[in-house]
Amino acid sequence: MRLQNAIIGSPAQRVVEARVGKLPFRGRHHRLPRKLSDDYAVTTKVLGSGMSGDVRLAHSKTRQQPVAVKTLRLSNCPSEILASEVQIFLCMDHPHIVRLFDVYEYADHLDLVMECMQGGELLDEVNRLGKFKEDRAVEVTKQMLLVLNYLHSHGVVHRDLKPQNFLYDCKGSSHLKLVDFGLSKFRGQRERMHTTCGTMAYIAPEVLERNYSSQCDMWSLGVMVFVLLSGYLPFKDTGDKKMQRKIMKQGRYSFDPKRWSTISAEAKDFVKCLLQPDNTRRLIVQSAFEHPWIQKSLTQPDEAVLVSASEALLSFCQRPPMQRVCMSMMAWVLSNEETAAVRDSFLMLDSNHDGVIELEDLEDLMVNKTSVSRDEASDCVRALDSTGSESIHFSDFLAAMLSKRIAMRDDLVAVAFQRFDTDCSGKITATNLRQVIGDEFGGKDVEELISEVSTSKGGTITQPQLSAYVQGTELSVKTNALWVSPSTVKFKASMDQKCCSVQ
Fold first, then answer.
1. What percentage of the chain reaches a pLDDT higher than 70?
2. Fold of the CATH domain 3-115
3. Would you say residue 485 has pLDDT above 90?
4. What is the CATH number of domain 122-295?
5. For residue 301, what is the DSSP state?
6. CA 41 remoteness from chain centre
7. What distance lies between CA 360 and its chain's CA centroid?
8. Under CATH, what is the fold of the domain 303-500?
9. Where are the beta strands (DSSP E) in 160-216?
10. The model's pTM
11. What is the pLDDT of residue 501?
12. Run of H or E including 40
């Protein structure tokens, strides 16, 4: 089977678009004539190796930022397995999951372009320190729980959770991100799986029995927390595979007094509640947040952050549809440094810890923190809902933050332009735009959207035109110079008045 047939024009594409929207799939997935080498310069430096291929260092030709490129070859793995990994990865949109910038598809392989995590593996940090202090261990555990709740809430089972798959985003950072979805599956919380997979030291007993559910991830979490607190694995490699499997199935482990004497009773109980051989007695991810050990690490929302987020969301919703389209595209190409500026605000607004913000909560926030009416707030938040799921995802939030808290520089607009220019012609046509967003956006068809930007009779958009439009200026046809349009002045004045009236 050709890889193209497994993704494009298949149920897999419809699943991705239903989960994250058309633009996040079509804007990041590229076929010939666009190639990886058009947008990135790949080096020979290998950052890591996985089951399906090496990960190499590369740099964006437009923004000069480092990225990681993973090549998945049909010769190394069946197409349906590769398609499943890419499909799930394309659906991932969370502050604690590495971002997938682009996918380039060819007849015999895929190139995946991801964030370059430069802070090292969680396992390396455990080995360096011997073990984590308890306050740091609970903070790391909370981050891993946020990822798991997002995955399980969206019907994804990871099946290979281990410290090697959690990376720090940059040197000196405490922010972790999950990588590698090679063994992940779309499954409901009660749906059973029967393939033995994963890394032996972290595999749940029921996986060895080949009859398991998403609860296998919670066991793996328990093993990781055990390692964080003690510096050693609860189930050591005996050298005898039969004995190893027997120990793992029975879930026999002990707390070494030398390592655990200073650990709190709450932390020990949390580990015990996860390392339950009977998965029906094991904590589910939602109840894990209610455990006393986790509860003490949760923080209350900051009032200033809530007000700032409300202003940015209001500003975004009141922008013209084509500006929102462009900002939504730019949200998917932001660097780690740019997303870091606002990700804590998103997590603060995610009251259910499931990786999305409920529209009802957002509407209440706008009414309470700005001068808008309930009807205005309702219209506003619906403009943010890109999938009709009654919630907004991390990238929806990032797009809104571009209006206030993230600078819309020319290089950022240039990357967005490349993704709309699907045939590499140097201009955006109605056909190009339709391929990325569909027939309409915000109640306007693609021809109307292009007319918001284009100054040419042919109905096409050049990169300078797009850059000027997105940043609130226009190109003078006669002088090719930038000038602020009357409509932009009116829009900015309106927004200034709105922001001045924030309570």
1. 90
2. Phosphorylase Kinase; domain 1 (3.30.200)
3. no
4. 1.10.510.10
5. P
6. 24
7. 22
8. Recoverin; domain 1 (1.10.238)
9. 166-168, 176-178, 185-186
10. 0.90
11. 35
12. strand 40-50
Q: So what's the pLDDT on residue 499?
A: 32
Q: Give the DSSP H or E segment for 309.
A: helix 303-317
d(CA 459, CA 261): 72
Sequence ranges of the domains in the chain: 3-115, 122-295, 303-500
Q: What's the average model confidence in pLDDT over 443-469?
A: 89
**pLDDT given for residue 409 in this prediction:** 84
Checking if the pLDDT of 343 tops 50, the result is: yes
Q: Position 501: which residue type?
A: S
Amino acid at 102: D
Contact residues for 48 (Cβ-Cβ < 8 A; gap 6+): 54, 55
Active site residues: 160
In this structure, of 82-86, 202-206, 459-463, the range with the lowest mean pLDDT score is 82-86
The dihedral region occupied by 116, where left means phi > 0, alpha psi between -120 and 50, and beta the remainder, is beta
Kindly list the distances between the CA atom of residue 278 and the CA atoms of 149, 157, 215, 227, 366, in Å, as whole numbers in the listed order.
Answer: 20, 18, 10, 21, 45
pLDDT digits (tens, 9 = 90+) for 107-121: 888 999 999 999 999
Reading the block at residue 103, the tokens are 């996918």
Q: What share of the chain is helix, strand, coil (3-state, %, to 5)?
A: 50, 15, 40
**How far does Cα 386 stand from its chain's mean position?**
15
pLDDT of the residue at 455: 72
* DSSP H/E element including 68: strand 66-73
Question: Could you tell me the end-to-end alpha-carbon distance of the chain, in angstroms, rounded to an integer?
Answer: 59
Averaged pLDDT, 252-258: 90
Query: Which tokens belong to 61?
Result: 């030709």
The whole-number pLDDT of residue 191 equals: 85
* Cα dihedral value 478, 479, 480, 483, nearest 10: -100
CA-CA distances (angstroms) from residue 67 to 46, 358, 364, 394, 416? 12, 32, 38, 20, 16
Paired with 40 in beta bridges are 60
Distance CA 181, CA 161 (A): 10
